[in-house]
Amino acid sequence: MTTPSKFLAALLMLSYLLASGAGAATPKPVKVLFVGNSLTYVGNLPAVLAALATENGKALQAGMLVKDGASLTQWLDSGAVQRALTANHYDYVVLQERGNDFACGFGPQVCKDSRHALHALAGIARGTGAKPILLGTYQVDHEASETLVTAESKAAHQDAMPYIAVSGRLNAGRKQFAYFDWFAKAGHPGHDLVLLEAVLLYQQLYGGLPEAKPLEVRAPMFVPGSRFAPPAPTSMPLLPEMPLAGGYGYARQELTAALELANSH
């Protein structure tokens, strides 16, 4: 083989190896930190979102900071969010307040504190390169629901962050699919509400909706009152919470309904 021919052969081999290496590279997972309370952990929203991403060919890892009744103000004051974001890199921070706090359901000082905490936590997230997202809560009364969505939307807009409205879609789902599992004990999210939130978050993260197909979630399905250890740096369940898990399987019909609701508002 002549020298030019050897050079061409070597160049072709190098191009092949580079192309093969690029094709074989493992996609970098999107990392999401959830900050919230029992509205966030009941039904294990982080795990449902991760399973939904995996089922649709995406790599996603999720952690959470959760505690019963915790407000964003309490998470800000505790310093736990700062510590979690310092210990690990996250691409997104999903913030979920207690139900009705932004709408001054517990007095004007509470909603003022909520807006301050949202602003501060958004700044902390952005300071580490993460993008904050406000995940809405819900009210079943029509007027209260609209008031809540307006207040949450305004708070998110003031801090230039995406807002995922849940309440209106939930109430539409309760009418269209009355037999679905919308609520758990004491008004906490049921499995189908958790799925709806996961679909909405998937849409926000990836710019499109997942496929309508059965989904198996192999993770603990936390219930109201589940206990978590102090963040180190994120929340981990205390025994015997893990054994009560069992996972959960969503049927195609449930995915189809969630996709319809996600597109309806």
Written overview of the protein:
- By secondary structure, the protein is α/β, with parallel strands linked by helices.
- It has a single domain (28-262), classed as SGNH hydrolase (Rossmann fold, 3-Layer(aba) Sandwich).
- 48% of the residues lie in helices and 12% in strands.
- It is built from ten helices and seven strands.
- It has helices at residues 3-24, 38-41, 45-55, 72-78, 80-87, 108-127, 142-158, 167-176, 191-206, 252-262; strands at residues 30-36, 60-66, 92-95, 131-135, 163-164, 215-217, 248-250.
- Helix 3 (45-55) crosses helix 9, helix 4 (72-78) crosses helix 6 (108-127) and helix 9 (191-206) crosses helix 10.
- Mean pLDDT is 89; it is low at 3-24.
Layout of SSEs?
Layout: H1 3-24, E1 30-36, H2 38-41, H3 45-55, E2 60-66, H4 72-78, H5 80-87, E3 92-95, H6 108-127, E4 131-135, H7 142-158, E5 163-164, H8 167-176, H9 191-206, E6 215-217, E7 248-250, H10 252-262
Parallel strand pairs: 1-2, 1-3, 3-4, 4-5
Antiparallel strand pairs: 6-7
Element order, helices and strands?
HEHHEHHEHEHEHHEEH
Give the spatial strand order of the biggest sheet: 2-1-3-4-5
CATH third-level topology: Rossmann fold
Poorly predicted residue ranges: 3-24
Q: First CA to last CA: what distance?
A: 67 Å
**Average predicted local confidence, pLDDT:** 89
Assigned CATH superfamily: SGNH hydrolase
Helix content: 40-55%
Q: How many DSSP-defined strands?
A: 7
CATH architecture name? 3-Layer(aba) Sandwich
How many helical stretches? Answer: 10
Q: What class do helices, strands and sheet pairing give?
A: alpha/beta
Radius of gyration: 21 Å
* Overall domain count: 1
Oligomeric organization of the protein chains: single chain
| Main sheet specs | 5 strands, parallel
Outline: globular
**The CATH C-level class name:** Alpha Beta
Strand content: 5-15%
